[in-house]
Design a protein that fits this description.
The protein is of the alpha/beta class and about 290 residues long. It has two domains: about 120 residues, 2-Layer Sandwich (Nucleotidyltransferase, domain 5); about 140 residues, Nucleotidyltransferase, domain 5 (2-Layer Sandwich). It is about 35% helix and about 20% strand. The protein is built from nine helices and ten strands. The longest helix is centred in the last third of the chain and has 22 residues. Bound molecules: adenosine-5'-diphosphate and zinc ion. The site of adenosine-5'-diphosphate has 16 residues, from helix 5.
């Protein structure tokens, strides 16, 4: 049996499951301060005999195994969690292999193995929620370089009628600054959920996301793109993306039919936790090899 943690900015989901991705038990824990949240995490896992634990965490995180701060949450705006040594804390409590990656990389892995990109050796998973982030599976592996990619902070061309300044504390009007949930709320003065009938909101959202997808497609050439997160529950955004993306790409690359190529998560809200279970499995297999 494996343990999995999907560590988010508002809640942690902890689960135990088997090697086929079946979840046997799960719990939701509010993200407060590490001492409190982690005590509940430990109490949940102590009930089980685990072979390994996988973590998909909000970030940025240090995912470089050679680094002295491997497994740490780094420059997060959630101050209580800054410099929290996540992997070390788990290792101290459980002497089992610990797999660690970003929440979006875990979700990408979950979708590639059990979800909307099952059977494909490449996919891109993007979440549009409190922030925008993406994880990529490339040739069967999670994409990683110096650190993990931060695809939510790319630059996009502004819509000529959009004068909203942007909300990213680092870049102002990067993609996340213009198109994540909090930007929608500040620009239009209402939470996304209360803007359902306002077509122009979701049209503009698709305008920005289509630009981002164009760049991801040109750079990574993913075999499928999965769009998740709270904002993507507004299905109108998909229609807007399907409209703008061909206008941007001009048939320069040939793509599958867009509604089959750019899709919702096959695992619904379980992409991240399922992927974290796979991270546990990977950590277990690596340990055996050693
Ligand atoms: P998180 O990113 O924190 O894990 P979500 O993916 O649910 O969580 O994203 C939360 C953001 O998405 C908020 O800004 C919220 O206003 C927005 N959001 C959540 N649900 C919806 C919805 N059904 N329609 C539009 N916006 C939504
Ligand atoms: Zn930014």
């Amino acid at each position: 049996m494996f343990g999995a943690i999907e560590a988010g900015g508002t809640k942690f989901v902890c689960a135990v499951g088997d090697e086929w991705g079946n979840i046997i038990d799960r719990v939701k824990i509010p993200t407060t301060v590490p001492e409190e949240t982690m005590a509940e995490v430990m109490a949940f896992f102590k009930k089980y005999e685990l072979e390994a634990i996988g973590i998909g965490s909000f970030g940025p995180v240090d995912v470089n195994p050679e680094s002295p701060t491997y497994g740490m949450i780094t420059s997060t705006p959630k101050l209580a969690w800054r410099n929290f040594l996540f992997v070390q804390a788990m290792k101290d409590a459980f002497s089992v292999p610990i797999g660690f990656n970003t929440d979006v990389n875990a979700a990408a892995l979950g979708e590639a193995v059990h979800g909307a990109a099952k059977g494909l050796d490449s996919c891109l998973y993007i979440t549009v929620g409190t922030g925008i982030g993406a994880g990529a599976v490339v040739q069967g592996q999670l994409l990683q370089g110096l650190s993990h990619p931060e695809m939510g902070h790319i630059l996009v061309r502004r819509h000529p009628n959009d004068h909203y300044q942007g909300k990213c504390p680092y870049h102002g009007d990067c993609l996340e600054g213009l198109a994540a949930g909090p930007a929608i709320e500040e620009r239009w003065g209402e939470k996304g959920i209360n803007l359902v009938g306002r077509e122009e909101v979701w049209e503009l959202e698709g305008y920005y996301i289509a630009q981002a997808l164009m760049q991801y497609i040109l750079i990574l050439s993913p075999k499928r793109i999965i769009l998740g997160g709270g904002v993507m529950k507004q299905k109108q955004v998909f229609s807007s993306v399907y409209k703008y993306l061909p206008e941007l790409l001009h048939d320069y690359v040939s793509l599958p039919e867009l509604p089959e190529y750019i899709v919702s998560p096959g695992l619904g809200d379980d992409a991240g936790i399922t992927g974290s279970l796979l991270l546990a499995q990977q950590a277990f297999k690596e340990e055996i090899k050693r």
